[in-house]
Amino acid sequence: MKASTPFAWLLGGLLLVSGAPQAVAQKQHHHKTPAATGLPWFTVHNKVLVVQTGNQAKPLEKDVTLPNGIRVEAQTQSIILTNGKRVKLQEGDLLSLNGEYIPKSASNTAPPADATASLLPMGATVPKSAPVVASVNSSPAPAPAAPAPVATAVATPSFAYRSETPVNGKLRGVVELGASGFNMFIIRIDDKKNWKLEKSEFGNSLVMENMSTEEDIRIGLKAYIGKMLDFGVPGRDIHFVVSSGAALSENTARITKALQALKYVVTTVTPAREGALGLKAALPTDYATKGFVMDMGSANSKISWYVDGQPHVQDTFGSKYFEKNVDDATVAAEVKAKASQVPANLRGTCFIIGGVPYELAKAVRQGQEAYTTLKAPTEYPQLNGAKIKSGLNIYQALADATGCKQFVFGYDTNFTIGYLLSL
Fold first, then answer.
1. Residue range 185-201, pLDDT digits in tens
2. Residue 34's CB: how many other CB atoms inside 10 A?
3. Strands (DSSP E) along 27-130, which ranges?
4. Do 378 and 415 form a contact (C-beta atoms < 8 A)?
5. Can you give the pLDDT at residue 336?
6. Arithmetic mean of pLDDT over the chain
7. Which candidate among 115, 166, 219, 245 keeps its CA 20 to 30 Å from the CA of 302?
8. Stronger pLDDT, 66 or 362, i.e. the higher one
9. Exposure string over 217-232, b if 16+ CB within 10 A, otherwise e
């Protein structure tokens, strides 16, 4: 997904995109609609989640954390409350910057701006005779006898696999220089190659954006490396890997040069090696003879499996193929041709990783489980955006070609972890 313009235009930086909320003193207008306060608000219009100020609206392209800790998810068009509860926004619903949620049923007949509205907890039934504003920020108030259920993600079958915990493991860190930004992983690994993810950051584009000179890049990289050193990773165990999709980027070449000046080794991988490393990290040992892996990247996707203990990789289109004006049918045909080579005995379970699979898993995650079983490709109508739609086309072609019924996303894995495991 392309990065959106920073929300500095929202009250001079009231919101912090995809980060911790800023401490902002903001008076709560529990008795006014968002429009009446003169502040921007979120609403779903024609199935698109937008940020609207007066008569101007901009699509929300990144997740946003409000000052009170409530998170707005752009792709799923949902609100994540501070207690972890998910509320799906419906067409016409309103959410203010200070945390007031107004269902369409209330906003259609909302009281005048100066009227005082009663408060109900999120999900309570709104009486037709007295429309109210339901605050996601207020303390629970007495609710009617028959509250309406809150919209939540449909449960998917659980996948309870657990890997061996490392014993007396050591910390190693790796930064992926990917086509869509930076991902950082710190793992603890023991002598038997058992490992555990200790820290991760996804989509950090600190270095790739807004830096024009080599000195700017060097300063930014030192700060980024400092995070891993502060966590306890020895300098000699910090590694940098350039994904196959990012290898040709002009920015990536400059970043690599700056890293080398700092005496760090930067490894560039081909699609074949990237697929093999993803297979090593994503496929549990118990599934080596009954499963395969799909790593869906932005620039390319890798389908991989083991043949007589050796990795076999097929690469194909990535989820940003739309930028190259390639039509869906062409992509689907190639993905099917590559996926049909997966041996029949390995098609029981597909472990699928990458940016788009992460969004699909996040939409149906039930808590903080390490693995999420994805729904069928056709069961994500609420997700929008060209990258998501392209990814779903790839996912559908993969499912059609293999007949696989269980696609599992692992939150704690990436091909660069496979690189650490291969050292």
1. 999 999 999 999 999 87
2. 24
3. 41-45, 48-53, 56-59, 64-65, 71-73, 78-80, 86-88, 94-96, 100-102
4. no
5. 98
6. 76
7. 166
8. 362
9. bbebbeebbebbeeee
d(CA 247, CA 107): 50
Pairwise CA distance, residues 344 & 98, whole Å: 54
Structure letter (DSSP) for residue 411: T
For 61-70, what is each residue's pLDDT tens digit? 777 777 566 7
The answer to whether the CB of 190 falls within 8 A of the CB of 169 is: yes
Beta-carbon-side half-sphere exposure of residue 303 (alpha carbons within 13 Å): 25
**Listing from the earlier edge strand, what are the strands of the sheet with 71-73?**
16-17, 64-65, 71-73, 78-80, 86-88
Q: How distant, in Å, are the alpha carbons of 177, 260, 269, 365, 416 from that of 254? A: 12, 10, 17, 38, 20
- On whether the CB atoms of residues 331 and 400 are closer than 8 A, the answer is no
The answer to whether 175 and 240 are in contact (CB under 8 A) is yes
Taking the C-alpha atoms of residue 141 and residue 106, their distance in angstroms, rounded to an integer, is 17
Report which of 190, 261, 267 is spatially closest to residue 221, judged by C-alpha positions.
261
Domain boundaries, the chain: 7-135, 170-268, 271-422
The pLDDT value given to residue 321: 95
165: left (phi over 0), alpha (psi -120 to 50) or beta: beta
What is the DSSP code string of 210-224? Answer: S--SHHHHHHHHHHH
Please write the tens of the pLDDT for every residue from 343-358: 999 999 999 999 899 9
Sequential DSSP letters for 109-145? TPPPTTSPPP---TT----TTS--PEESSSPP----S
Does CATH place domain 170-268 in 3.40.50.1000?
Answer: no
- The letter for the amino acid at 49 is L
1-15, 94-108, 327-341: segment of lowest average pLDDT? 1-15
- Taking the C-alpha atoms of residue 350 and residue 360, their distance in angstroms, rounded to an integer, is 15
DSSP 413: -
Tell me if 64 sits within 8 A of 18, measured CB to CB: yes
In terms of phi and psi (left: phi > 0; alpha: psi -120 to 50; beta: otherwise), the region of 123 is: left
Which architecture, in CATH terms, is 271-422?
Answer: 2-Layer Sandwich (3.30)
This prediction has a pTM of: 0.61
DSSP string, 139-167: PP----SSPPPPP-PPP-------PPPPS
Which helix (H) or strand (E) is 241 found in, with range?
strand 238-242
142 CB burial (10 A radius; 0-12, 13-18, 19+)? exposed
